[in-house]
Amino acid sequence: MDKSKIKVCVGLSGGVDSSVAAYLLKQEGYDVFAMFMQNWSDASTTLHGDCEWEEDRFVAELVARKIGIPFYFVDLSEKYRQRVVDYMFSEYEKGRTPNPDVLCNREIKFDAFLDVARKMGADYVATGHYCRKGMRFLDSGFASARNDNKDTCDVIYSIYEGTDPNKDQTYFLCQLSQEQLSRAMFPIGHLMKPEVRRIAKEADLPSAEKKDSQGICFVGKVDLPTFLKQKLTSVEGDVVEVFDAYYASNELYCRQQEILGSLLKPGVELDRTVHYAPEEKVLTSDGQPLGESPYGREPSDEELAVLATPVSYDIKFETETYRSGKKHIKKTRWKENPYGRIVGRHEGAQFYTIGQRKGLGIGGHAEPVFVISTDTLNNVVYIGEGHHHKGLSRFCLRVAPEEVHWIRPDLALKPGESRRQRVRIRYRQPLQGATLFMREDGLFILFDCAQRGISAGQFAVWYDGEEMIGSGVISL
Predict the structure, then answer these.
(1) Can you give the CATH number for the domain in which 132 is found?
(2) 253 and 320 co-located in one domain
């Protein structure tokens, strides 16, 4: 294969990862050119208050000059606003928690950007993601790492975890299609981050010491409520703390616990709330085999639907009058309620996410308090005290049929089938043991352990060993 005849467009962001990706491809002999995409220009939304993209573009151009490759600029800000930012606003307005970085990769980097690159003659688009790509010929089952130009109908493409266990970025690529993968290259997926820094320094790349970007993809680090207030109306409402007693009287919660107990193998006990630990563990499968399920039988469709339904909160508060002070002034207060109490005010339920700890402004608790639910219809935010609060933990979620995406369509489950997989529900979460059940009503994921802060709108992503198989938007 003559690599000099293969034209690769590198999405050069100005960061060290994409810079090294471009450098390595050039060293390997590919016909490389760089393109910087501008996707956001509103400096008023960032915490730094300046146009970060202008500095990034300057660094990216210096990198391209240093490597000796052509440099181009493309403005995709209108498409980014329509496909990513407007989607974000719409999801938050519904009380859901979207992941803009996943959408950015699906809709911008490997769609709009890819289209521009292809029109400029590129055979492939390369990025600085920490992941690895594989290719398997369907007729012989022969796996190959070659980047040739065979038609996608003859091969199946795979995407594997990055070699660096703490930098794996497959989660953000969980919505890519076979067509998009056929045109993608990930030159640094086999490297550890320190090695990438070393290569950049030895090559004297201008981005060698540049810090990794943070915040929303191409927008930067933002104050999320301030960002959302551009389009979402701020309306004050109550913050309600939910007490443990509520769950003993909640029919749905009690039914869920009953079902879980009936599913367990004899002698197996489950911690019904999350065992808290900071999410600084190794992210990848780390070569360990997937353990056995703690469940001894397969749940029925009705049981799966019950387990996947989040507990809702309908705590009514009544007022009472009392006299205060020497003058016995008449005042009003909330009656005590065994299920909860109103502990504060918020500026809009749509600005809060399940599992959120910071920015609540609620004091007077021995342990941290977390958002356990938001009711955007009635504009109420529900919180619970402590890492082991029952409202933070769930065992099951559902992905609607139309939201199930198979990166490996040849491995797609049919209705009635099930499979053991590892799953994560957010970036930087260690992979979790789970069983996937495909039903007519969608894909249900039943975890081996309680999961913390399952949020509608986020992506659940499942893996077979080191390979990412599919993903879907959490609906319940």
Answers:
(1) 3.40.50.620
(2) yes
**What are the backbone angles phi and psi of residue 117, rounded to the nearest 5°?**
-60, -40
Amino acid 292: pLDDT: 92
The distance from CA 297 to its chain's CA centroid, rounded to whole angstroms, is: 30
Task: Kindly tell me if the per-residue pLDDT of 8 is higher than 50.
Answer: yes
What percent of the chain is predicted at pLDDT more than 70?
A: 89
Residue 181 and residue 267 in one domain? no
Instruction: Work out how many domains the chain is built from and give that number.
Output: 2
Question: Between residues 322 and 16, which one has the greater pLDDT?
Answer: 16
Q: Rounded distance, CA 123 to CA 139, Å?
A: 24
Among the three residues 199, 220, 241, which one is the final residue of a domain in this structure? Answer: 220
pLDDT in tens, 356-397: 998 898 989 999 999 999 999 999 999 999 999 999 999 999
Q: Of 425, 360, 348, nearest to 393 (Cα)?
A: 425
Q: Are 11 and 57 in contact (CB under 8 A)?
A: no
Rounded-to-integer distance, Cα 339 and Cα 349, Å: 20
Of 104, 131, 174, 396, catalytic? 104
228 in a structural domain: no
| Bridge pairing between strands 319-324 and 31-38 | unpaired
Is residue 362 within 8 A of residue 239, CB to CB? The reply is yes
User: Is position 104 annotated as part of the catalytic site?
Assistant: yes
User: For the whole prediction, is pTM greater than 0.85?
Assistant: yes
Neighbours of 205 (CB within 10 A): 21
| 250 in the same domain as 360 | yes
Helical axes 251-263 vs 301-308, angle rounded to 10°:
130
Distance CA(356)–CA(349), nearest Å, equals: 12
Cα(165)–Cα(367) distance, integer angstroms: 32
Domain, as residue range, for 124: 3-220
* Of the residues 154, 187, 220, the one at which a domain ends: 220
Label residue 286 by pLDDT band (50, 70, 90).
Answer: low
Please tell me whether residues 280 and 420 are part of one structural domain: yes
**CATH of residue 272:** 2.40.30.10
Q: How far apart are CA 395 and CA 293, in angstroms?
A: 13
| Residues 366 and 476 placed together within one structural domain of the fold | yes
125 dihedral zone (left: phi>0; alpha: psi -120 to 50; beta):
beta
As a whole number of angstroms, the distance between CA 193 and CA 208 comes to 12
449 is an active site residue: no
Q: Which of 76, 450, 87 is nearest to 260 (CA)?
A: 450
Annotated catalytic residue within 9, 131, 174, 217: 217
Cβ burial 357-368 (10 Å sphere, 16+ → b, else e) = eeebebeeeeee
Residues 187 and 286 in one domain: no
Q: Are 263 and 299 in contact (CB under 8 A)?
A: yes
Nearest to 155 by CA among 175, 134, 124: 134
